[in-house]
Amino acid sequence: MSANNMADPRRTNKILRYKPPSTESNPTLEDPTPDYMNLLGMIFSMCGLMLKLKWCAWIAVYCSFISFANSRSSEDTKQMMSSFMLSISAVVMSYLQNPQPMSPPW
Asked: 17-23 — which CB contacts under 8 Å span 24+ positions?
């Protein structure tokens, strides 16, 4: 066993544990994409609900998925889940009012 330690080229005094850089010292490390997608999802959800536009409701679901995928685990999930549920309700309500397939917006 001691022969193994003698052949080990690593220096134990040079091993340092990785510490991620703090966002307080460098604010450019914080990614605003989840926040923007959350806001866009809520705007499109409201447009889908109020204006009965199915494509707005589907874009809201897409934005909510992007927001959820890009968020950090330490963030508050209540706002994200409320945005997701709002976008799902916009899709459900738009199809309950008019069950026809979605027509292209052009």
From this structure: none
d(CA 16, CA 36): 36
pLDDT in tens, 39-66: 999 999 999 999 989 999 999 999 999 9
Q: Label residue 47 exposed, middle or buried (CB < 10 Å: 0-12, 13-18, 19+).
A: middle
CA-based angle 70:75:80, to the nearest 5?
Answer: 65
CB 71 within 8 A of CB 37: no
Contact 64, 37 (CB under 8 A): yes
Q: What is the pTM for the complete model shown?
A: 0.70
pLDDT digits (tens, 9 = 90+) for 26-36: 665 677 888 89
Q: Is 52 exposed, middle or buried (0-12, 13-18, 19+ CB in 10 A)?
A: middle
